[in-house]
Specification:
The protein has 12 helices and 8 strands. The chain is 50% helix and 16% strand. The chain has a single domain, classed as Aldolase class I (TIM Barrel, Alpha-Beta Barrel). With 239 residues, it is α/β, with parallel strands linked by helices. The protein has an 8-stranded parallel beta barrel, surrounded by 8 helices. It binds cytidine-5'-monophosphate. Cytidine-5'-monophosphate binds next to strand 8.
Length: 239
């Protein structure tokens, strides 16, 4: 992949409540990174202003708020996200087929009204923080995690979602089953030179793309580096 292609495929996670720090990171990185992920920490602290601030700097936003509510409520949240002009956002697949379908319709309809490109809609299957024991004993699903993830991915595709978030462990199977157009967003990425931090099973950027990821999400190895631009360049070199 060329640097121009990589610029569109590496998403940097802005996991901070510090708006000035986030803006500084975007300013430093925007020539090499196009998409920045805003999660609940940043959005709860700063709301739509956070999205506008990133977009005003010329970058795109992946709004990682993982909507999970009744179809009507999610559809209205999706309209609001679309009006904000986010590039990508996500919903929890266990919210159900109807909820996901209404989310897709809301995004497309709202974008049409505003004459803009609809955001990409991504499904969150099972949180990778959950162990098999927790899924079986606490949540009460007596199936192997891998099977649940594949089943949820199928449901997401059926609902019309553009893709799902999946750990590198699951990417290969999902890519094989759902074809080249289905988007797979993969976090838990650590370049060869980076600290693992609290991520248990990590994958290098190169491995993730080789397994079939469409986008990779990288946070701390870039955002906490002394020189984030240099860290991003090192990721590019690895690829
Ligand atoms: O700093 P780090 O590279 O670990 O950040 C990864 C980002 O991806 C964080 O925003 C984290 O919440 C998110 N994420 C993850 N694992 C998942 C889903 C999302 O690390 N399974």
């Amino acid at each position: 992949m060329t640097d121009e292609m990589l610029k569109e495929r590496i998403i940097v996670a802005l996991d901070t409540a510090d708006l000035r720090f986030a803006k500084r990171l975007v300013r430093e990185l925007k020539d090499v990174i196009k998409i920045f992920k805003i999660g609940s920490e940043f959005f709860t602290a700063h709301g739509p202003k956070a999205v506008r601030a990133i977009k005003d700097l010329g970058a795109e936003v992946f709004l990682d708020l993982k909507y999970h509510d009744i179809p009507n409520t999610v559809a209205h949240a999706v309209q609001a996200a679309t009006r904000l002009g986010v590039f990508m956002f996500n919903v929890h697949v266990p919210g159900g087929l109807q909820m996901m379908q209404e989310a897709c319709i809301a995004a497309v309809d709202e974008a049409k009204k505003l004459n803009m490109t609809p955001p990409k809609l991504i499904g969150v299957t099972l949180l990778t923080s959950l162990s098999q024991k927790e899924v079986t004993n606490q949540i009460g699903i007596a199936k192997p995690i891998n099977d649940i993830v594949l089943h949820y991915a199928e449901l997401a595709q059926k609902a019309g979602l553009d893709g799902i978030v999946a750990s590198a462990k699951e990417v290969e199977k999902i890519r094989a089953k759902f074809g080249p157009q289905f988007l797979i967003i993969t976090p838990g990425i650590r370049p060869t030179w980076a600290e693992k931090g609290d991520q248990e099973r990590v994958t290098t950027p190169r491995q993730a793309f080789e397994l079939g990821a469409s986008y990779i999400v990288i946070g701390r190895p870039i955002t906490e580096a002394k020189d984030p631009l240099e860290a991003a360049s090192r990721v590019f070199e690895e690829l």
